[in-house]
Amino acid sequence: MALFLKASDPLASKIYPDAPRVAVGAVVIDDDKVLLVLRKQAPSKDMWAIPGGSVELGETLAEAASREVLEETGLTVETGEIVLTFESIQRDPEGRVQYHYVIVDLLAEPLDAHQPLQPADDVADAAWFSLAELERGQIPVSPPTLALVRKMMKA
Question: Roughly how many angstroms between the first and final C-alpha of the chain, as a whole number?
Fold first, then answer.
């Protein structure tokens, strides 16, 4: 069953899009830990993920990544190089494209990693995790996110 939204609904441009949407993620690593957020909205609801979200019109990838980290965690970061670009396409049971994102992940450095995190916006929580904690399999994180964290923390 398809979900139809009014154009004024904030989810209208995300679900059943008319074109792929550009999004960013910020891979924030400090002191052998990575910053993850617990998503409270689809896609990736109830999964720990790299902080990030949609790029706004006129915004650079770096600006979007910094803004998203600040909005979701209260942490100010300085963004660096692009570390991964990939697509995420999810279809509904009828085969219609429900979500289609082209995601660009950037490395980011926290300007004050020791400040308390303040989860907000579209996340339920934010926390720092070691690679060992994520590899135990008790924290719900997608295999692609775990692979990226593994790659960046072993680099």
Answer: 44
Token pair recorded at residue 149: 């964290």
Give the contacts of 7 (CB within 8 A, at least 6 positions apart): none
Of 2, 57, 55, 59, the residue nearest 25 (C-alpha): 55
By three-state DSSP, how is residue 152 classified?
Answer: helix
DSSP string, 93-115: TTS-EEEEEEEEEEEEEES-TTS
Is residue 43 reached through a cis peptide bond, with omega within 30 degrees of 0 on the bond before it?
Answer: yes
What is the model's pTM? 0.87
- Point out which residues pair with 127 in neighbouring strands: 36
pLDDT in tens, 92-134: 999 999 999 999 999 999 998 788 999 997 899 999 999 999 9
pLDDT for the residue 154: 84
Backbone angles phi, psi at 69, to 5 degrees: -65, -45
Hey, what are 32's tokens?
């052998």
Contact (Cβ atoms closer than 8 angstroms) between residue 92 and residue 76: no
Q: Report which of 33, 46, 48 is spatially closest to residue 128, judged by C-alpha positions.
A: 33
Nearest of 70, 48, 68 to residue 133 by alpha carbon: 48
Q: pLDDT value at position 79? A: 97
